[in-house]
Amino acid sequence: MTYTSKNPEETKELASRFIQGLTARDRAVVIALIGDLGAGKTAFSQAIGEALGVRDPIQSPTFLIEKIYELHKAPWQHLVHIDAYRLESESELTALGWDAIIARPENLIIVEWADKIGGILPEGTIRVTMKHIDETTREIDIQS
């Protein structure tokens, strides 16, 4: 499905509806965020975190690569936020325990810049492609 968001509030509402429609699986749920700089990947991640009750500020973990948030009253126990922007190869994420992270059904994983690690995204990954249209408008395509 493709949506057009005309402002940050609409993006937040879409992210909230999107996450409420997901359920836990027998493996981690992986959400791959794809789009250019400024397309809204971090804003979408923040809205998901807020909808799941994360109280800590969610910032793109560009220099940390990965940040884990505890979830309460959600289908998952952890929100794992990964930023692949600085990765030079998929093997760097594999070295950080990627296989173990995706094997755990209690994890909801959001990967920003997921196109950089496309070869190791598991089957069933939800792809969210974001496109910057103008200062406030974004095109958001969600493929399950």
Short structural summary:
With 144 residues, this protein is of the alpha/beta class.
Outline the structure in words.
- This protein has 144 residues and is an alpha/beta fold.
- It has a single domain, classed as Rossmann fold, CATH 3.40.50.300.
- 25% of the residues lie in helices and 28% in strands.
- It has four helices and seven strands.
- The chain has helices at residues 8-20, 41-51, 90-95, 98-103; strands spanning 2-5, 29-34, 66-70, 78-83, 107-112, 126-132, 138-143.
- A seven-stranded mixed β-sheet has the order 1-7-6-2-5-4-3.
- Helix 1 packs across helix 2 (41-51).
- The protein is globular and about 40 Å long.
- It starts with a strand and ends with a strand.
List keywords for this structure.
single chain; 144 residues; 7-stranded mixed sheet; 25% helix
Total beta strands: 7
Distinct helical segment count:
4
Strand percent estimate:
25-35%
CATH architecture annotation? 3-Layer(aba) Sandwich
- What topology, given as strand order, has the largest sheet? 1-7-6-2-5-4-3
* Main beta sheet: 7 strands, mixed
Order of helices and strands: EHEHEEHHEEE
Contiguous runs where pLDDT drops below 50 for at least 5 residues = none
Q: What is the CATH topology assignment? A: Rossmann fold
Secondary structure blueprint with pairings:
Elements: E1 2-5, H1 8-20, E2 29-34, H2 41-51, E3 66-70, E4 78-83, H3 90-95, H4 98-103, E5 107-112, E6 126-132, E7 138-143
Parallel strand pairs: 2-5, 2-6, 4-5
Antiparallel strand pairs: 1-7, 3-4, 6-7
